[in-house]
Automatic annotation (TrEMBL):
Family: Belongs to the prephenate/arogenate dehydrogenase family.
Ranges where the Prephenate/arogenate dehydrogenase domain occurs: 19-296
Superkingdom of this protein's organism: Bacteria
Family matches, as InterPro entries: 6-PGluconate_DH-like_C_sf (IPR008927), NAD(P)-bd_dom_sf (IPR036291), PDH_C (IPR046825), PDH_N (IPR046826), Preph/Arog_dehydrog (IPR050812), Prephen_DH (IPR003099)
Organism: Microbacterium mangrovi
Keywords: Oxidoreductase
Protein name: Prephenate dehydrogenase
GO MF annotation terms: NAD+ binding; prephenate dehydrogenase (NAD+) activity; prephenate dehydrogenase (NADP+) activity
Keyword Oxidoreductase: yes
Keyword Hydrolase: no
NCBIfam families associated with the record: PRK06545.2-3, PRK06545.2-4
């Protein structure tokens, strides 16, 4: 069974979602939604075209098998992008009194498809949780992947307040933050912050295929950070990129122009203005990173403290324990292991005011501080 250790705490909070929730698609997102709702005591009915996937999701506790006599109040369509419109149309016809939403990562193309068919979309509201993992399927599902993440809700002028409350209530129950956005704006936004980063990460990681082992042995946390999502499933991403091709191409064309400009500067680094071109590109990246929302959606920046941690059991727990005793809140954490080394580097993000007290307090407790940026 999946880890539901957080279920008791969640059950103490009254769920906004009630009645039966039908989830069509028992993959990563569908099963994760199921786990979170089951932990809240909601009746979850699962359906999937793959009997094996469905059985696996049920065995892991994401819900029960859907029945013919189910009368869901909410239907969540969590299927691949190339079939999402077909499934939405089918569910709207089968359950005309239910609110139907989908969690596909592209919103405009399925909507246009449904409109062309003349489907009654009165009770349909497209949505998209900005959450996921590199691995897919029911076995990778987790109830907590939505916590603190944006959940886009694409309402229109005909959306009733009651139907909107059902979808936003689902997002809130799962710990996400509802964000209202039109489908066109959504697709342009995810092209920039999700779809193009996937392509860039995949292309960069693809350069490693024929690289010498010695070169890859020098890889540090920076290259791991920039290529982490390159492990994603090609089959799914082909569908996503096909459905959102135009906004993705716009960003790629602009990025290609930026790359060409930097490459030209580096071909003749002593030419007038070449070094400034490179510096401006790096500086613009600094400015862009500063605009990314951090913890709790704030644009607040934190200071980093790097601590050497022996590669033995219990050391990371001891480090967190010591930070707790020092009343230092860990805002973020990254771990890096150097090949062949018997220690790791824990890069800890803390509020600026606590950086020096944290460093001094940890040093007094025997920790070796590798670096700190104050």
């Amino acid at each position: 069974m999946t880890d539901t250790s957080s279920a008791p705490a969640r059950n103490r909070v009254a769920a906004r979602t009630h009645g039966t929730v039908r989830i069509v698609g028992a993959g990563l997102l569908g099963s994760s939604i199921g786990h979170a709702l089951v932990a809240l005591g909601v009746d979850v009915a699962l359906a999937d075209t793959s009997p094996a996937q469905l059985r696996l999701a049920i065995d892991y506790g994401a819900g029960r098998a859907a029945r013919d006599d189910d009368a869901p109040r909410l239907v969540v369509v969590a299927v691949p992008p190339d079939v999402v419109a077909d499934v939405i149309a089918r569910e709207l016809a089968a359950f005309p009194d239910a609110v139907v939403t989908d969690v596909a990562s592209v919103k405009l193309q399925p909507l246009r498809d449904l409109e062309r068919r003349g489907i009654d979309l009165t009770h349909y509201i497209g949505s998209h949780p900005l959450a996921g993992r590199e691995r897919g399927g029911a076995i990778a599902a987790r109830a907590d992947i939505f916590i603190g993440r944006p959940w886009v809700v694409c309402r229109d002028a005909d959306t009733s307040a009651a139907d909107l409350a059902v979808v936003e209530g689902l997002a809130l129950d799962l710990g996400a933050t509802p964000v209202e956005m039109g489908p066109e704006e959504h697709d342009r936004s995810v092209a920039l912050v999700s779809h193009v980063p996937q392509i860039v990460a995949s292309l960069l990681a693809g350069r490693f295929t024929d690289a010498p082992d010695g070169s890859l042995g020098l890889a540090g946390q920076g290259v791991r950070d920039t290529t982490r999502i390159a492990a994603s499933a090609p089959e799914l991403w082909v569908q996503i990129l096909d459905a959102n091709a135009a906004p993705v191409v716009d960003v790629l064309d602009a990025l290609a122009a930026d790359l060409a400009q930097v490459a030209d500067a580096l071909r003749a680094p002593d030419a007038p203005g070449a070094r400034r071109t490179v510096a401006d590109a790096i500086r613009r990246g600094n400015d862009g990173v500063e605009r990314l929302p951090g913890k709790h959606g704030q644009n607040r920046r934190f200071e980093q403290l790097v601590v050497m941690v022996d590669d033995t059991a219990g050391q990371l727990g001891r480090l967190f324990g010591d930070l707790g005793e020092l009343d230092v809140n860990v805002e973020d954490l990254r771990l890096e292991h150097s090949p062949g080394a018997q220690f790791g580097l824990a890069e800890i993000s803390v509020a600026p005011a606590t950086l020096r007290p944290a460093a001094e307090g940890l040093a007094a407790r025997g920790w070796k501080i590798a670096s700190m940026n104050d």
